[in-house]
């Protein structure tokens, strides 16, 4: 009998939907399927959100010109998602979640530290995306005269949270199918949005925006990196792990980076043009990044806009909740994967309630969240990328779960390097809009960078420095350790007793 057409190339369309039973375990050869091209769908669907338009206002908020913001955005998006592509190669080489493969660098139980940071980042992102979808829905309903107050926000939050939690709990197959439809629907509606509001662009106004300093440009570049690829890098192998190990590494890198970057690059350009044409719009986006975009629309398109906004944000939140559950398991929680995702869903709802009903100055808090967790994640990514570059063989399945195997239990070198890179990084970032982050930036004065109010205060150099220090440190100090690991004979396959050491 002919199987239903499967645009993912994953075999998912031919099977009935069921809750994914895989957690941290290695995917068996018989279950690895698809081609690198199938990675386009989840990554595009997760990043086609109209939030990409708002990043135009965020970038210009650093005090730079259109051309500087465009360069910062293109470089930040392309480079950061290329890092995701490199780490996605680990997935097809090890067929395990990202934060399990990270054990090869950090040790089986030493890896719990970066797993906790990864969990915090993904829970934070899914919370932010859920809150944005809720606020956008309320804004649309208010514009239509259908309400928009507390009751509307509460209902919208429940609907968005339900879609996100169900996707995360069900797992890989449902996510892959969802992302295909989200990609198609949001892609078409986003193009319509662009066509409807194009007449609000005034190139003369945009071109007249004065240029900013090199430090302001770097600040925008780092913000774009943390807002895009560095927000996903800790989950980059969670989907490529289902590919056959013989899949093309170049294909994995290319389709991951291309799928993730395509929509944000297009949306950024248009967002820059819109925000640069209206100072009032830029200010409104800081308070309600999605809802503010409705002010440009005719009433007839408000409902379709709500659909594209919610679906785009849900697409990202679903991937986040799936990966946050895996990170929580890797941190040491011993429950089935779907319960971990459900637990994260409860935290997500609580956090979204705070953002929607109680928090003010959304942009300041959002930037503070990104830069603070972006520093340790950048340090982890540096270690992971260098460790992956040093390896010539696939990971040993069994020893990823054995504290006394070749990867070790709690090796001090990678942990100390990560902590040191993080400490230096936090000393070189600032965010005055978030009161709880005023302790950062403590190295700006000793390093001669002008202190917390100088020209380098908002360049957020700490993210790039943490990435570079961790990467170079691992390349210099980790070669011997990796060679010793790869010289050992293969270990027995893992059994149920070692999956959660």
UniProtKB/TrEMBL annotation:
The chain crosses the membrane at residues 40-60, 66-89, 119-142, 154-174, 181-198, 218-240, 252-276, 296-319, 339-359, 365-390, 410-429, 455-477. Its main location: membrane. It holds the Pfam family Transp_cyt_pur. It is found in: Membrane. InterPro entries: Pur-cyt_permease, Pur-cyt_permease_Fcy2/21/22. The keyword Transport applies. It comes from the Bacteria. It is a multi-pass membrane protein. Keywords: Membrane, Transmembrane, Transmembrane helix, Transport. Belongs to the purine-cytosine permease (2.A.39) family. This is Purine-cytosine permease family protein. The lineage of its organism: Bacteria, Bacillati, Actinomycetota, Actinomycetes, Kitasatosporales.
């Amino acid at each position: 009998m002919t199987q239903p057409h499967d645009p993912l190339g994953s075999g998912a369309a031919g099977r009935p939907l069921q809750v994914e039973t895989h957690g941290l375990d290695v995917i068996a050869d018989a279950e690895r399927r698809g081609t690198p091209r199938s990675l386009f769908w989840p990554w595009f669907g997760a990043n086609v959100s109209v939030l990409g338009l708002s990043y135009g206002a965020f970038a210009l908020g650093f005090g730079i010109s259109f051309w500087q913001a465009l360069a910062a955005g293109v470089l930040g998006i392309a480079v950061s998602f290329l890092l995701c592509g490199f780490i996605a190669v680990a997935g097809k080489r090890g067929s395990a979640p990202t934060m399990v493969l990270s054990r090869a660098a950090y040790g089986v139980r030493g890896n719990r530290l970066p797993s906790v940071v990864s969990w915090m980042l993904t829970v934070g992102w899914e919370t932010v995306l859920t809150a944005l979808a809720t606020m956008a829905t309320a804004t649309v309903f208010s514009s239509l005269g259908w309400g928009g107050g507390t009751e509307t926000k509460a209902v919208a939050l429940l609907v968005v949270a339900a879609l996100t939690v169900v996707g995360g709990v069900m797992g890989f197959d449902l996510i892959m199918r969802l992302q295909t439809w989200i990609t198609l629907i949001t892609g078409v509606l986003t193009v319509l949005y662009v066509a409807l509001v194009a007449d609000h662009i005034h190139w003369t106004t945009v071109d007249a925006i004065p240029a900013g300093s090199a430090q302001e440009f770097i600040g925008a570049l780092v913000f774009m990196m943390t807002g895009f690829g560095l927000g996903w890098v800790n989950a980059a192998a969670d989907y490529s792990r289902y590919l056959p190990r013989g899949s093309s590494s170049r294909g994995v890198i290319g389709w991951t980076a291309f799928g993730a970057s395509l929509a944000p690059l297009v949306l950024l350009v248009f967002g820059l043009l819109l925000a640069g044409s209206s100072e009032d719009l830029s200010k409104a986006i800081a308070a309600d990044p999605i809802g503010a975009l409705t002010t440009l629309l005719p009433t007839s398109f408000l409902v379709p806009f709500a659909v594209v906004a919610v679906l785009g944000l849900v697409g990202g939140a679903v991937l986040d909740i799936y990966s946050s559950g895996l990170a929580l398991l890797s941190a040491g929680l011993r429950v089935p994967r779907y319960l971990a995702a459900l637990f994260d869903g409860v935290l997500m709802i609580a956090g979204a309630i705070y953002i929607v009903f109680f928090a003010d100055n959304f942009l300041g808090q959002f930037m503070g969240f990104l830069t603070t967790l972006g520093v340790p994640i950048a340090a982890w990514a540096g270690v992971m990328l260098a460790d992956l570059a040093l390896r010539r063989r696939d990971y040993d399945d069994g020893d990823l779960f054995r504290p006394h195997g070749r990867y070790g239990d709690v090796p001090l070198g990678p942990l100390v390097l990560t902590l040191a890179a993080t400490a230096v990084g936090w000393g070189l970032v600032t965010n005055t809009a978030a009161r709880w982050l005023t302790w950062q930036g403590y190295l700006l004065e000793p390093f001669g960078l002008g202190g917390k109010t100088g020209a380098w205060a908002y360049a957020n150099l700490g993210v790039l420095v943490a990435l570079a220090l961790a990467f170079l440190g691992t390349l210099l100090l980790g070669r011997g350790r990796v060679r010793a690991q790869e010289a050992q004979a293969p270990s027995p396959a893992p059994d149920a007793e070692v999956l959660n050491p």
